[in-house]
Design goal:
10 helices; Four Helix Bundle (Hemerythrin (Met), subunit A); about 325 residues; Rossmann fold; binds 5-S-methyl-1-O-phosphono-5-thio-D-ribulose
């Protein structure tokens, strides 16, 4: 039903072009580091775990082409700084004797780990729950299955009746374009809402829990995720609604002590001053476009990982 987001196709990397969804499901191929970096920068491939696979496959690509793998790895890492999985994937392939074999292992592992996250997290969703999620954390954000959306999917497929509030996720609409498409494809009941409606929904008693993914989790448990996540967490706290973060071990970054140390990617102002390619703000208007925000650990009810659900960030040895 859902194709692999990214796969090694023998001297090239084939990936779903997420920029074109929900209108069409098409694949594109990267044959050089430069092409791959273009796909990463423009979000043809995106989502922390998918970026991990892209990083590893990028190094593998440079290796089979006989290029300087360290240089390729450095260029790939610099494309998007916040999602730690990108650098993690690059480093794993760089450390391997055979980067292709390592990239394949990482991709296969990704799906298994996400399914384990789903199994652990599904227990958090009581029958009849109305679950709010932000951004897109499904199969397309990983090699397969998904993290936060994978938890929702696991609960649904194990027979738990539930419904999902899908934040549209301004400015690039990962929720409206990708989460909505994926939930529809899977037949999971879902309703799209503007991001700014989350508070109203919680105030009217229509949200039972929120679950999101992460791009980097600092050693103290602070969570970098798509811009707008922090607002959801603060609203959950105010309304006494549990706010969960689902992520694989590869997203936990012990080298980053806290959220203040996380580099937050800033993207082009055009993404805010335009909508679907058409200008929506006056010409010359300044705009600030932080792609991520940081949610303090104190607002997180639990971290859902492949090893279980933890109240505080687990220290993976
Ligand atoms: O800018 P994006 O679309 O790559 O941002 C993605 C997110 O913020 C996701 O929530 C995160 O990467 C987790 S994906 C399982």
């Amino acid at each position: 039903m859902l194709p692999p987001t990214i796969e090694w196709a023998g001297n090239r990397i084939r990936l779903v072009d997420q920029r074109r969804l929900p209108h069409e499901l098409v694949m594109v191929e990267a044959t050089t580091t430069e092409e791959l970096c273009g796909f990463i920068a423009t979000l043809a491939v995106r989502g922390a775990p998918a970026l991990g696979a892209a990083g590893a496959m990028g190094v593998a690509l440079a290796w089979v082409r006989g290029e300087d793998v360290a240089a390729a790895g450095a260029v790939i890492k610099a494309t998007r700084p916040t999602a730690v999985n990108l650098a993690w994937g690059v480093d794993r392939a760089l450390a391997a004797a055979d980067p292709v074999a390592e990239a394949l292992r990482l991709a296969e592992d990704d799906v298994a780990r996400n399914m384990a996250i789903g199994r652990h997290g599904a227990a958090l969703i009581a029958p009849g729950s109305r679950v709010l999620t932000h951004c897109h954390t499904g199969s397309l954000a990983c090699v397969g299955w998904g993290t936060a959306l994978g938890v929702i999917r696991a609960a649904w497929e194990s027979g738990t009746d539930l419904s999902v509030w899908v934040d549209e996720t301004r400015p690039l609409l990962q929720g409206a374009r990708l989460t909505a498409w994926e939930l529809q494809t899977l037949g999971i009941p879902a309703t799209l809402v503007a991001d700014v409606m989350a508070g109203s929904l919680m105030a009217s008693g229509d949200v039972d829990l929120a679950i999101v993914g992460a791009d980097r989790i600092a050693a103290n448990g602070d969570v970098a995720n798509k811009i707008g996540t922090y607002q959801v967490a603060v609203l959950c706290h105010h309304h006494g609604i549990p706010f969960y973060v689902a992520a694989p071990r590869s997203t936990f970054d012990p080298a980053t002590p806290d959220g203040a140390s996380i580099e937050v990617e800033e993207r082009s102002a055009d993404e805010v001053t335009s909508f679907a390619g058409a200008r929506s703000a006056p010409v010359g208007m300044a705009a600030l476009n932080r792609a991520f925000d940081v949610t303090p650990a104190a607002l997180v009810a639990g971290y859902v990982t492949e090893d279980g659900v933890f109240r505080s960030p687990p220290s993976f040895g």
